[in-house]
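Encode chain A's predicted structure.
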Amino acid sequence: MQIYWTKINKIIEETPEVKTYLLDRPQDFTWEEGAHTHFALEGFNADDKPNRSLIRHMSISTLPSENSIGITTRIKEQCSEFKSILRNLEVGNEVAIFKTYSNVPLKRENKNVYLLSSGVGLATFRPLVLDYFERADNVNQIHSLNIDASKDFLFTNIFKSAADKKFVAQFVDNRKDYYEEVKHLAEDKTGLFYIVGSDEFLAQNIEVLREQGIKPEQIMLDKHEEQLSKFLSSNLSV
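Encoded structure for chain A:
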């Protein structure tokens, strides 16, 4: 396993609780849109066994063409040891990334694509949307639906509706409106539905989509193969 040690080159305060850490891109490091990586803090591998409290599974919120590795995360006032350390890091500090993989690249199958996300989960979809803007080949259109109770919506400079790009960006701040809209989107029986959020959020969305007749193979999750079957099984249990 290759561990890349790299430096923070910029910290962006997206909202009062959400920050993006832009990391220098190592020369031979590359990734696909929708990728996730293991993001680790200094000292995680100091002992014989890795200190898992200093490692998190994070989405990469940038494209390789942006030449920085973006890690976007929510840091609340009361937070874990990991987030507490992360909050105090500065430009120039070193972090590690390893085991990078993409479960949710943008499928180009001449279908409508629906991106369903909760809160900072939108970070996973930012590179998919940018990739689509750069090259719309074999994607009919994209509709993004994000729920965030804080109303501090992310990436509104990118996630804004544009008819000429066949792109719709929708933000809601309550569950009732959100799931009503999911049902409406599921009227498209051939669409592809990407979902990013907590396990509970995934399960609820899958249940609504399946009730509307959407098939498991139309649902994309940022999960490994063995986890997918658990989420997409017919009994809908988590």
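The chain has a mean pLDDT of 94.
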